[in-house]
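User: Predict Threonine/homoserine efflux transporter RhtA's structure from this.
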Amino acid sequence: MKNNHIQHLLEINLAMLFIATSGALGRYVQLSVPVTIGARAILAFLVLFLFCKWKNFSFNIYKKDILAILLSGVLMGVHWITYFYALKLSNVAIGMLSMFTYPVITAFLEPLLLKTKFQLVHLLLAFLVLAGMFFLSPSLDFENSYTIAIGFGVLSALAYALRNILLKRKVAKYNGSILMTYQTAIVGVLLFPFLFTIAPEQIFSQWQALVALAVLTTVIGHTLFLMTFKHFNITTVSILSSVQPVYGILIGAVFLSEIPKGTTILGGILILSSVVIESIRSKKQPKLL
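Assistant:
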């Protein structure tokens, strides 16, 4: 049992390492955000679809689950778009750290949506997150691109938290690759018209980064992440994934030479502290199946 737990922790860390590439890639791609996300989703869908066909996974979905899967796809699209706007308006560190308010958002949403007991300690965690947000952007100026970026990051976090809660009970029924295939298809269909707003040559000029974003971040990273939902409750999953900004900031520092400022590091420590506290506190709690 202990070895299995260690294996599951290693799996979620591997998933976070792959997903963390989104920060540097999102900053690197020189296309508009809707075009980038649309191309990413379509490429990821093609790879996932071929993989699922090769593995003979069933694409059958129960009628009662169709609406939830459709909504999860829309939320995934909102999450990706707002997150990439946060990256474009700031840097990898601020974009990822502001999005990583989602574990605490998840902890607040679970009692509301899943009718679990609200815990007062989450108020303390919320205060830590708000303090961290202050240090990320100490001047609350909506003409400041960093402040706007943080707003997009928090909206991305909300969409991500809702999507994860929505899919928690679906991973027991469906393979993670199947769920990601449907989600990428939904995002791809919604954003497909944006691909005609620029010349095809511009998209093709970014093909390497787009393929990396589709395969490494989306196909491998997000599929592995969905599969970890089977082993932990959704709040714990969101908390364990707090290592993602660390990986992302390191990748950004190595490949983009983006070294975070002292105030950014302090804000990140406060945000991630709330995540670590909740991780330790929830360790003894039973899974929410």
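The chain has a mean pLDDT of 84.
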